[in-house]
UniProtKB/TrEMBL annotation:
The enzyme's E.C. designation: 4.4.1.13
Keyword terms: Lyase, Pyridoxal phosphate
Cofactor: pyridoxal 5'-phosphate
Domain Aminotransferase class I/classII large: 41-377
Name of the protein in its database record: cysteine-S-conjugate beta-lyase
GO molecular function: cysteine-S-conjugate beta-lyase activity; pyridoxal phosphate binding
Protein family per UniProt: Belongs to the class-II pyridoxal-phosphate-dependent aminotransferase family. MalY/PatB cystathionine beta-lyase subfamily.
NCBIfam families: C_S_lyase_PatB
Organism phylogeny: Bacteria, Pseudomonadati, Pseudomonadota, Gammaproteobacteria, Vibrionales
Length: 386
C-alpha cells in the first residue's frame, strides 16, 4: 500500500502503562518490553472509539441484549468474507472466547469421552479438558513443508473409541498456519471416523497476512462439518477490543446449540452494552482500518523473519496469519529461552505454556519502533553467548 494512501497511524506510540493493562503491568517498573499476551498496542478503529463515546454520552448502562442489526451485520460478514451462509438463530453471543472453549468441552462430551487437542497450542485448549474432567489426547503439531500442522494420525491410536471432541485452531495459535480446504476435509474425515464433534477456534480468522491465503471456516466445508461443529469467532483480536469481551459461537445444529446454551445458563454472564457497541461499529465500519493493519503487520512479519533467521541458533517459520511469532530456540545454548530473553529486556510468552519449553512466542502487534528495539535486545543477548 502506498504511504500516501494511509488513513491510520499504526506507528503512533500510545502509553498503556497507566491503563491497568495486563500486558504492560506484568513488567511494571522494569525495563522489559512486553511482547507476550495477544493484544496489540494499536488504538482501535476511529469508528469504534466514536461509537463508544456516543453510547457513553447516553449515560444509562442497564442490562442489554444483542441488536438484530449486529446479528444481521455478522451474518452478512460471514457470507461476504467467507462465503458461508449462516442463519441468525445459529449465533450465540459470549463475553469471551475462552468460556466458549470451556462450555464446548462440557456440552459436546459425556463422561469418559475423549478430547483431542493439538499440542503445542493456546493454553485454554488444554485446561478446558482438565476443567471438564475429560481424558485429553494430544495431536503433536509438527512441521510439514514449512507449516505447522497437528498430526492427527499420531493421536489416533490413543483414542478410546467412545467418541468425544476434536479441538482445532484455525489459524493456528501458535504457528500461524491457515488450513487449506484439503486439510479441513482431512480433519472432518478424522472427526467422522472417530465420532467426534469439533470445536473450531477461529478468533484470528481476520488476521491473514498472506494475500493469496483465504480463511475457510471449518463448518462451511460440508453439511456434516456444519452439523457436528461449534465455531468460535470474535472481533477482539482483529480490532483490538479484547478487554471489552464480545465473542460469538456459531452452532448450526439445534441440539448442540441447546446443550451449549444449557451449560452456559446461570454461569456465564451476558455480553455488556459497550462490548456490543464496539463489535457492531468494528464489523460495520472497520474494514479499511483492518486492511491497513494487515499491511502493517505483514511488514513486521517479514522484518522479524529476516532478523530472527539471521541468528545462527534460532528459527522462525513463515507466519501465514496472526501477529504471533512461534520462535524455535532449540539450538540456543540456554536452559530456559523465556527467562534468558526476559533478562535481556524482552518479555515473551514461554513456550512451555503452550507445550514446548524450547520455543517462545513473540507478539508483534506493536509499533515498528518497539519491534526493532525488541529485536536489537534479542540479538545482543544471543551475541553475548558466543
Amino acid at each position: 500500500m502506498d504511504a500516501s494512501t494511509h488513513q491510520f497511524d499504526f506507528d503512533k506510540e500510545v502509553d498503556r502503562t497507566k491503563s491497568h493493562s495486563d500486558k504492560w503491568d506484568k513488567y511494571k517498573g522494569q525495563d522489559i518490553l512486553p511482547m507476550w499476551v495477544a493484544d496489540s498496542d494499536f488504538q482501535s478503529p476511529p469508528a469504534v472509539i466514536e461509537a463508544l463515546q456516543e453510547r457513553v454520552s447516553h449515560g444509562v448502562f442497564g442490562y442489554t441484549h444483542a441488536s438484530e442489526t449486529l446479528t444481521d451485520i455478522f451474518v452478512k460478514r460471514m457470507k461476504t468474507k467467507y462465503n458461508w451462509d449462516i442463519q441468525p438463530e445459529w449465533v450465540v453471543y459470549l463475553p469471551g472466547l475462552v468460556c466458549g472453549l470451556n462450555i464446548a468441552a462440557r456440552a459436546l462430551t459425556d463422561e469418559g469421552q475423549t478430547i483431542v487437542s493439538p499440542s503445542p497450542i493456546y493454553p485454554p485448549f488444554i485446561s478446558s479438558a482438565k476443567f471438564a474432567e475429560r481424558p485429553l489426547v494430544k495431536a503433536p503439531v509438527k512441521l510439514a513443508e514449512g507449516r505447522w500442522m497437528p498430526d492427527l494420525e499420531e493421536a489416533e491410536e490413543q483414542l478410546s473409541g467412545k467418541g468425544g471432541l476434536l479441538q482445532m485452531c484455525n489459524p493456528l495459535n501458535p504457528g500461524g498456519t491457515v488450513y487449506t480446504r484439503e486439510e479441513l476435509e482431512a480433519t472432518l474425515a478424522f472427526a467422522e471416523k472417530h465420532d467426534l464433534f469439533v470445536c473450531s477456534d477461529e478468533i484470528h480468522c481476520d488476521l491473514i497476512l498472506d494475500g493469496e491465503k483465504q480463511h475457510i471456516p471449518f463448518a462451511s466445508i460440508s453439511e456434516s462439518a456444519e452439523q457436528r461443529s461449534v465455531t468460535l469467532m470474535a472481533p477482539s483480536k482483529t480490532f483490538n477490543i479484547a478487554g471489552l469481551g464480545a465473542s460469538i459461537a456459531i452452532i448450526p445444529n439445534a441440539k448442540l446449540r441447546q446443550r451449549f446454551s444449557k451449560i452456559k445458563r446461570g454461569i456465564v454472564p451476558g455480553v455488556n452494552v459497550l462490548a456490543f457497541t464496539a463489535a457492531k461499529a468494528a464489523y460495520q465500519h472497520g474494514e479499511a482500518w483492518l486492511q491497513e493493519q494487515l499491511c502493517y503487520l505483514a511488514g513486521h512479519r517479514d522484518y522479524l523473519m529476516q532478523e530472527i533467521n539471521a541468528l545462527p541458533s534460532m528459527k522462525l517459520e513463515h507466519i501465514e496469519a496472526t501477529y504471533l511469532a512461534w520462535i524455535d530456540c532449540s539450538d540456543l545454548p540456554v536452559d530456559n529461552p523465556h527467562r534468558f530473553f526476559e533478562k535481556a529486556g524482552v518479555g515473551l510468552s514461554p513456550g512451555l505454556d503452550f507445550g514446548n519449553r524450547k520455543f517462545v512466542r513473540l507478539n508483534f502487534g506493536c509499533t515498528r519502533k518497539t519491534l526493532e528495539e525488541a529485536v536489537r535486545r534479542m540479538k545482543a543477548a544471543v551475541s553475548s553467548l558466543a
